[in-house]
Backbone:
């Protein structure tokens, strides 16, 4: 993430325009490539700076920003422990001279210490703190292409601006169930909450949410700006989005707006959005087994309290008009099962049923919850690979008859 | 159904509309469909509920009542007794301002022993974490929890750095009934306020030697920790609580080459300010300068010149001679040398073969250096800013400010390092300043504190 002094942007009429770099700029790519070459040479930070100065690279206005990003990906090699041992010996010997000897001058004192360690004064001085990080060779912990580094710069620039955010509004385009789950999971992971103007989120339409932290309810603060900045790269995974952030820069309020059209790219890994093909086929099989119910992939999600959201997979609509949702839990989102049952135990509307994959139903905590929960006994079931149409049909009829 | 009060992410929640008497504390949160209050309102919610005869299930409270026994009896000094009484009368909430060396840690131990609740002590540095851990273990004879520096152990008495407390308070803010914030003038900083806001601790003690903040954040501090309940100044305590001291100003002259380079850089910088009408009298001027400096090549050159002239004045080679002379006159006395930046600290360390303690020093070596300094086997320590606050080095008798900012608080804290009372001790603080440079103005600015408004010898 770029620090405050490295942020490049313009403000006009309270509108902030970040100075993103052009990721196709050949000259910039060449400049970045030169910097990366320096960083792969195993030099110390001080040597890097000196070489960059000799080559004139440090005159480039973006030098400091890229240097920061590359340093973030570096590790200093382990310090030589002998340096510390020798330092203490020199310091103690030098102190002895200061206390016990009549010294004529600094030079006299330095000569005495030099003689005691049989090393020239300059060498002693140079070696005294040679184990500081800036004197230790750096190694890059990951390789990154010049283009990716430019993308990283743009993302870090926006993250650096979001550190000054007081309010963030995000509009997202149509999302799959898996994408919605991932977005909500990321928000929760970053300890952020969202306000939905519309209580139901239809997957086939745009949706606007205000993102904030728990204490933002009482006063607008920047307490959660680090959470917002860390969350930002997740937004870049979404297909269509528009973000508007209210910032305070140089003590003045201003606004930055960004959309997917600007082409920023996330360096976070994309999570697995795998949906088994069997589930897609389920609707067809179910319809054949149970003609009284019309089934479709669900396109809504529901806040169910306590900062939890249900994203059902299927919507069943009875010929009488009654609607029941089914949410399935597979092995890749087992961590939410217990919390989801507890939330649904107290939620009466909408009517949501739960299907739990057998592989996670065996986990000790989940197993205990399934056995103890009266709600689950009446509204849930366990499936092996994918739900069988007959089991779902039978549960629907049971719920419908209550 | 009886209401249940829950703690969640630094806030308090109830799942149904609160009773009328409590509604002023809670706001309906449409994000989670619950009623929410900031965690720091816990005490007022409890007291109001009690007065109104409202009972609820308190699942928010996660702290314990303790049965601590002091292992070493404390004979408090009069000002400590007065401060404790004042804090108690203010309903066990409030800020106490005492000069460094006046025994703030002992006051905190007295408060912990009196309150008998799980306690979180928040301190600015890892050195202070270790210092508090040692003192608490000594007085209470039990293992002390630590949050910070790679340690994550929570105990009934836990010490945390501000940085770690800020990260964890949303999860652990309900586990402590007493919150003690050392050097609490840092708390109003935007990122640290969360520590006070997200903690339910009904009992709170803020400790500081220097409450002054240039941004007027004191009000926020009092909102989070309670009002200023007791204050004493250095001048009130010299001789009987603090060591008497002298402040000596040493002006050094730049060498010819340094003078030429200084004037050239200073000229370039001042010319840029004049041309752009920038007044450097306050934070606005500085912000404007930074803004203009980033706009073009001329601005960048001006900024480079600004840094160069500052560096020349702060690191004048004549200062090394001055330090040498001071060390020669005090060769058997424990001496702390303060600089504004690490580079100057290491330059002095390398030239004079002295131990340097900065944030880059490895934790074990930091500890070794401080232990050796306290034991008197190391007579000199060079440091930039990490020893400015809190660290207890009672032996320090001589302080040398080689360079620093114009911030009064920093200067008073540095003076405080050498004022711990010891029989027969007389402390001396040297300020080494480059003559006819901007350093002289910086020096005058940071001396605007009552500790420096007296005669040079106190």
Residues:
């Amino acid at each position: 993430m770029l620090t405050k002094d490295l942020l490049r942007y313009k403000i006009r009429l309270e509108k902030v325009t970040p100075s993103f770099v052009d990721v196709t700029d050949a000259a910039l790519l060449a400049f970045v490539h030169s910097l990366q070459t320096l960083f792969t040479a195993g030099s110390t930070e001080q040597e890097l700076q000196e070489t960059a100065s000799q080559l004139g690279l440090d005159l480039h206005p973006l030098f400091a920003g890229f240097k920061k990003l590359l340093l973030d990906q570096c590790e200093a090699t382990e310090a030589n422990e002998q340096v510390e041992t020798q330092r203490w010996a020199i310091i103690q010997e030098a102190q002895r001279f200061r206390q016990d000897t009549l010294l004529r001058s600094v030079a006299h004192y330095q000569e005495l210490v030099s003689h005691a360690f049989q090393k020239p004064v300059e060498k002693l001085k140079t070696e005294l703190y040679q184990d500081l990080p800036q004197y230790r060779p750096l190694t890059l912990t990951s390789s990154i292409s010049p283009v990716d580094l430019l993308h990283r710069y743009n993302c870090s620039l926006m993250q650096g601006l979001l550190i000054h955010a007081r309010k963030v509004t995000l509009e997202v385009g149509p999302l799959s169930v898996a994408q919605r789950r991932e977005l909500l999971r990321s928000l929760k992971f970053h300890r952020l909450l969202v306000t939905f103007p519309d209580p139901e989120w239809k997957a086939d339409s745009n949706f606007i949410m205000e993102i904030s932290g728990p204490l933002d309810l009482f006063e607008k603060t920047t307490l959660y700006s680090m959470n917002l900045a860390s969350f930002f790269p997740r937004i870049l995974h979404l297909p269509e989005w528009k973000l508007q952030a209210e910032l305070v820069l140089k003590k003045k309020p201003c606004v930055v707006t960004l959309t997917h059209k600007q082409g920023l790219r996330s360096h976070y890994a994309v999570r697995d959005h795998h949906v088994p093909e069997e589930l897609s086929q389920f609707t067809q099989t179910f319809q054949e087994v149970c003609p009284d119910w019309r089934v479709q992939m669900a396109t809504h999600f529901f806040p169910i309290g306590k900062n939890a959201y249900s994203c059902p997979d299927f919507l069943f609509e009875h010929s009488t008009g009654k609607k029941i949702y089914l949410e399935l839990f597979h092995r890749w989102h087992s961590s939410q099962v217990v919390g989801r049952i507890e939330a649904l135990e107290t939620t009466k509307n909408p009517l949501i049923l739960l299907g739990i994959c057998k592989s996670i139903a065996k986990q000790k905590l989940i197993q205990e919850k399934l056995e103890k929960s009266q709600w689950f006994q009446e509204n849930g079931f366990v499936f092996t690979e994918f739900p069988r149409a007959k089991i779902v049909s039978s549960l629907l009829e049971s719920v419908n008859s209550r | 159904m009886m209401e249940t009060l829950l703690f969640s992410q630094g806030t308090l929640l109830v799942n149904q509309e609160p009773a009328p008497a409590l509604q002023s504390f809670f706001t309906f949160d449409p994000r989670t469909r619950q009623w929410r209050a900031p965690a720091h309102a816990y005490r007022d919610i409890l007291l109001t509920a009690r007065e109104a005869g409202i009972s609820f299930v308190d699942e928010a409270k996660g702290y314990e009542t303790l049965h601590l026994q002091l292992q070493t009896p404390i004979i408090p000094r009069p000002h400590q007794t007065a401060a404790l009484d004042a804090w108690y009368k203010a309903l066990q909430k409030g800020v106490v301002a005492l000069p460094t060396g006046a025994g703030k840690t002992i006051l905190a131990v007295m408060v912990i022993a009196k309150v008998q609740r799980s306690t979180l002590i928040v301190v600015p540095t890892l050195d202070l974490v270790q210092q508090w851990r040692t003192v608490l273990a000594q007085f209470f004879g039990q293992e002390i929890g630590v949050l910070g520096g790679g340690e994550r152990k929570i105990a009934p008495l836990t010490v945390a750095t501000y940085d770690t407390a800020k990260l964890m308070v949303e999860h652990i803010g309900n586990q402590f009934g007493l919150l003690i914030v050392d050097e609490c003038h840092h708390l109003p900083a935007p990122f640290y306020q969360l520590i006070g806001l997200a903690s339910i601790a009904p009992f709170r003690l803020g400790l500081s030697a220097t409450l002054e903040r240039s941004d007027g954040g004191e009000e926020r501090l009092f909102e989070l920790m309670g009002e200023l309940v007791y204050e004493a100044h250095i001048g009130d305590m010299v001789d009987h609580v603090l060591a008497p001291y002298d402040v000596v100003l040493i002006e050094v002259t730049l060498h010819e080459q340094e003078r030429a380079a200084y004037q050239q850089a200073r000229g370039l910088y001042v010319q840029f300010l004049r041309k752009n009408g920038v007044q450097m009298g306050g934070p606005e001027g500085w912000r404007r300068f930074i803004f203009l400096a980033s706009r073009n090549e001329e601005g960048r050159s001006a900024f480079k010149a600004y840094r160069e002239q500052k560096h020349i004045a702060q690191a004048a080679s004549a200062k090394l001679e001055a330090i040498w002379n001071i060390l020669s006159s005090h060769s058997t006395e424990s001496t702390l040398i303060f600089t504004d930046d690490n580079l100057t600290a290491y330059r002095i360390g390398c030239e004079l073969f002295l131990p340097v303690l900065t944030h880059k020093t490895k934790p074990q070596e930091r500890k070794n250096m401080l232990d050796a300094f306290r034991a008197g086997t190391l007579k000199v320590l060079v440091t930039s800013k990490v020893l400015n606050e809190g660290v207890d080095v009672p032996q320090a008798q001589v302080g040398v400010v080689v360079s620093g900012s114009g911030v009064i608080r920093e200067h008073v804290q540095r003076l405080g390092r050498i004022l711990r009372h010891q029989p027969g001790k007389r402390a001396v603080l040297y300020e080494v300043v480059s003559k006819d440079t901007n350093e002289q103005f910086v020096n005058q600015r940071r001396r605007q504190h009552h500790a420096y408004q007296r005669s040079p010898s106190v």
Summary: Chain B has four domains: 3-58, 78-232, 245-254+316-452, 256-314. Residues 21 and 53 of chain B are 10 Å apart (CA to CA).
